[in-house]
Write a structure and sequence with these properties.
The complex is a heterodimer of chains A (305) and B (455). Chain A has 305 residues and is mainly alpha-helical. Chain A has eleven helices and four strands; from the N terminus they run ααααβββααααβααα. The chains are: A mainly alpha (305), B mainly alpha (455).
Chain lengths: 305, 455
């Protein structure tokens, strides 16, 4: 029971990170029907930007308050990652919009290879580790000498995820931009006819996706304290799994899917085999797509002749 | 310049402004990761080092590039777009006719050409790293072309079958001592068996979803290879895999070795040349089988499936069998290539079968123009050969200083090239299709009319 509770806490934390990345996949897929293969690497780039920002703030500028530093790191990472993803959309995907379906996918795979190698070339192939940013934990209770803890890091991740999801939900459901997004999702031509700037809306979708990935990247860096250029692929695929599990195109689905994937992964590691934890996530992906292709919250995809 | 149409004038002010904006954007993009570098200092702490000159150089290059684009390239493109389309000149039509025999002649003569130009000592490198490496990818590209290009099933886990072939050969050869010539077909059979096995669950899936599930399968196989240490020796891989023999005559320095039997001086180059012709034969076999299959009912069913699955089904084509044969055929050739790979390297580990390999092979197929055999071959030469050439560009050290290592930038440029080629030619390098069935007149179909296959 106590192991289970602890894994539940760990799983939700990991799942929040996956959920934040998954929103990026699901939004982009919803609006332009493309699996943005480079999104996992955008997440990795954001973790590196956060790393640079953190070192800059603490060592160059000498900010000692961790809360302030973390907040600033988050803002900086969101800003720069948004810029990166905006440019990627502009350069690599926009010219291929309306082209044949494989072209953007290949372009995205190329972008993914480019991004991870760009980071490897500019920052070096070694793992980058930093001293823990946040220390300390609450001991919830102890049973059979096994303390169930909730660390401050985890609490911060929960809190930041919840706040950002609330902002994001407001953005999508209440603002003009959100309405434009949902309109483009349904019918781009029609949306353009009623005066929605489709290009701008799609750009903004990439910007929002990147901002959320940057939150995930910052949280990832804070949680694990280590990041490497190759860290984009596996979290990317898992987040995509989360998006598929929740029903691609569905925003609450992405978050729920993320948390489910996080839980499956931690539970699998705790009770079965840590070596095969990625197999668990990939199997969930395959099984979902085969038996429940519309996911938990998605609309079934009906093909008309 | 009075003859210029108004739309063709080069607007210098606008070009400068655009260049300025682009440079500013580049500054923002590259500031965090090029402007700063995270390095580990003597106390093993991570510190930041600034690289302002490099950042400024990158920004300047981007800005000047943008300026050159709007001043030179863009007007040229617009000018060209206004010109009426001219039919291809006669020499190009002639060249197109002679291209195939010439290309085959060249690849057959390639080892001799290399031996003549590079000399005995350096030839091994050029035949092995360049010739064999490219041909492996040509073969894999042609194999995947059956699945993606003909049947329209998007497969991102193709490397799994390559791995099955390689591990089948390695394990069976090491455990039972079977020869390469027995195991080559066996590896193909085993791989196609896996193709059917993994094909079954994904029969209902299409397009991107199919791609992602096959990706997941590919990764699962790799993770199993890593963790099933008793069988595969995990990350460490399998060493000492028996090398192929010249129909029973080994390539070694012994008295019964190839060199001694044929009265030659011993040199590793004979094995390399033999391997070169072996993979060339395998690749040509793949191409030949594909060309013939396209004319058989099953090949026509594949192409029909790519165009429209529902129409296919209503015409009474068994889509299950059609898809499974495509997976099996594609996987079989990957299995052949895998066993060749294991025999050539003498060492395999899960590192050779990452997702990046699958992505590379798929990109070769798509960049070449799906379904086009020559296009796939050209793409393989350009992408694999191009990145291999990066290893040889030592003269760049003279320009950028002795610490400059061009090999570092191989994959960076590879990814960048993928994006650029897609933007330049979204349909691939060769985007026309030769129909396998014609009514009265033989016409080339533009790729726009060919469906990309939602699988």
């Amino acid at each position: 029971m106590e192991v289970f509770l602890q894994q539940l806490i760990n799983g939700i934390t990991l799942g929040s990170i996956y959920g934040l990345i998954a929103i990026g996949y699901t939004m982009v897929f919803g609006i332009i029907g493309m699996v943005n293969f480079a999104h996992g690497d955008v997440f990795m780039v954001s973790a590196f930007i956060a790393l640079v920002a953190f070192l800059l703030l603490t060592s160059f500028l000498g900010i000692s308050s961790i809360a302030l530093a973390l907040f600033l790191v988050l803002i900086v990472a969101m800003l720069f990652t948004s810029l990166v993803n905006w440019t990627i959309e502009r350069l690599a995907y926009r010219p291929l919009r309306g082209s044949f379906r494989l072209a953007p996918l290949i372009s995205a795979i190329g972008m993914s290879i480019f991004l991870s190698n760009f980071v490897q070339v500019t920052q070096g192939p070694r793992n980058k580790s930093i001293p823990p940013m946040v220390q300390g934990e609450f001991v919830l209770f102890t049973k059979n000498d096994y303390p169930v803890t909730l660390s401050f890091k985890q609490l911060i991740i929960w809190f930041v995820t919840a706040v950002l999801l609330a902002c994001f939900w407001y953005l999508v459901s209440k603002t003009r931009l959100g309405r434009a997004q949902r309109a483009c999702e349904q019918d781009q031509k029609m949306a353009a006819l009623v005066g929605v700037d489709v290009d701008r809306t799609i750009s903004m979708t990439f910007v929002i996706a990147a901002a959320l990935a940057a939150v995930a990247g910052t949280m990832y860096l804070m949680y694990y304290g280590v990041v490497s250029f190759a860290d984009g692929f596996v979290p990317g695929v898992k987040a995509f799994t989360a998006a598929v599990l929740g029903g691609i195109g569905s925003l609450p689905g992405a978050v729920v899917g993320g948390i489910l994937i996080g839980l499956i992964e931690t539970m699998w590691s705790a009770y079965f085999s840590i070596d095969y934890k990625d197999v668990a996530a990939f199997s969930v992906l395959a099984i979902t797509l085969i038996f429940l292709p519309q996911g938990l919250f998605g609309r079934p995809d009906v093909e008309k002749v | 310049m009075g003859g210029d149409a108004p739309g063709l004038r080069v607007d210098t002010v606008r070009a400068l402004r655009d260049a300025g904006i682009t440079a500013l954007l580049a500054f923002g993009l590259f500031l965090p990761l090029v402007g700063f570098q995270t390095v580990t200092d003597v106390r093993n702490d991570l510190i930041l080092v600034t690289r302002w000159p490099l950042l400024l150089a990158v920004v300047a290059v981007v800005g000047i590039g943008r300026l050159a684009y709007s001043l030179a390239v863009e007007p040229w493109l617009r000018q060209r777009a206004l010109l009426p389309a001219t039919p291809a000149p006669a020499w190009r039509v002639q060249a197109g006719k002679w291209f195939l025999p010439f290309a085959i002649g060249f690849v057959v003569a390639y080892p001799a050409i290399v031996l003549a130009t590079a000399g005995f000592g350096r030839a091994v490198k050029w035949i092995d790293n360049f010739g064999i490496q490219v041909l492996i990818y040509v073969m894999l590209g042609w194999g995947l072309n059956i699945v993606v290009g003909l049947a329209g099933l998007l497969d991102l886990g193709y490397v799994a079958f390559y791995a099955v072939g390689a591990y089948s050969y390695a394990l069976l050869a090491k455990t039972f001592g079977f020869s390469f010539w027995i195991l080559l077909p066996l590896a193909g059979v085993l791989a196609s068996f896996w193709g059917i096995l993994l094909g079954f669950p994904v029969l209902r899936l299409r397009g991107d979803y199919l791609a992602i599930v096959t990706l997941a399968f590919g990764e699962i196989i790799r993770i199993v290879l890593i963790n099933w240490v008793d069988l595969t020796n995990g990350y460490a891989g399998i060493t000492g895999i028996p090398r192929p023999t010249f129909f029973g005559i080994p390539f070694n320095a012994e008295d019964d070795g190839f060199a001694a039997v044929f009265g030659l001086e011993f040199s590793p180059i004979y094995r390399t040349i033999f391997l070169y012709y072996l993979i060339l034969a395998l690749a040509l076999l793949t191409a030949f089988v594909t060309v013939r299959l396209r004319r058989l009912p099953v090949g026509r069913a594949w192409e029909a499936l790519r165009e429209d699955e529902i129409a296919c089904r209503s015409l009474g084509i068994n889509t299950t069998n059609t898809k499974l044969t495509a997976f099996a055929m594609g996987a079989m050739f990957a299995g052949f290539a895998g066993s060749f790979f294991a025999a050539r390297q003498g060492f395999i580990s899960p590192d050779s079968f990452t997702f990046l390999e699958s992505a590379t092979i798929l990109s070769i197929v798509v960049l070449g123009g799906m379904g086009s055999q020559i296009g796939v071959a050209i793409a393989a030469i350009a992408m694999i050969g191009g990145t291999e050439i990066m290893r040889e560009l030592d003269f760049l050290k003279l320009i950028f200083g002795s610490t400059f290592d061009p090999t570092q930038y191989r994959m960076l440029l590879f990814g960048f090239a993928m994006v650029l080629i897609m933007i330049w030619r979204p349909r691939g390098l060769i985007s026309t299709r030769e129909p396998s069935v014609v009514l009265k007149e033989r016409k080339i179909i533009g790729a726009d009319l060919v469906k990309e296959g939602h699988g």
